[in-house]
Amino acid sequence: MSVHAPPPRVLKTAKIKITTKCNRSCDFCIFADGAQGENMSPELFSTILTRLESLPFRQLHINGGEPTVHRDFPALSDTARTRLPDKVMVLGTNAITLARNQRIMEATLRSYDQILIGCDDEHGNEDEVHTVVPRLCEAGKTVVVNSVLEGISPTRLTRLTWLCDKYGAIHVTNHVHHIDVGQPANELRGLCDRYLDQHLMIEMDGSCYRCFNAMAKDDSEFTVWDADFAAKVFAPRSHHYRFCLRCHEYSDSGAARVPALAPTV
After folding, report:
1. Verdict on whether the full-model pTM lies above 0.85
2. Nearest CA to 31 among 199, 204, 149?
């Protein structure tokens, strides 16, 4: 019987949180500190790109906080685009600065392939979203507008649906309101099936989690400073994060060890 080597592992998405600053102060948000937040230094951002250059991965997702309020957003975006020319560049934003600052819009058009926009009543960004979606779509960008159903009025939801239909954007709705908003604790059994997607989130201080919803500093698995960083990205994981207990997106994969070990025969 012939033995076939398992296919090489490929990271789906690397997400860099470049700021905890935001131009909104949404009650539900666990990822931003309003105007009191901090920006990632260009030096750390460059170090992270160097680490990522050693990995096989598909998408680079720039997020925050609100990444467009980072004072060096254009420069960081251009640097990432130049150093990782074959990656899909994704921006997560509330679109407020995009609509109000031409320099930020131009940087986004230069560097990003996909723009993901959160829009609901608490964000208070409906006018800005209606401003930027036509321009982004006409520039050939993939635009996804995400609305939390419990957080948006039926009238605004209808207008967003119309907007996306007209310009070719994707409108998605869900019930996810980030982490721990009073829901019952999850019954944690197998590891979350999202681990199987192999996402990597890199925090403001260079700490790393293989989950986009990471929020507990004590749960950091490794850092970009580790000499064996690339190996740790693909190392098996066999325990839950602390925040899995309260995560809306937790779904039991049935797997006790992720990623699963390749068969030996």
Report:
1. yes
2. 204
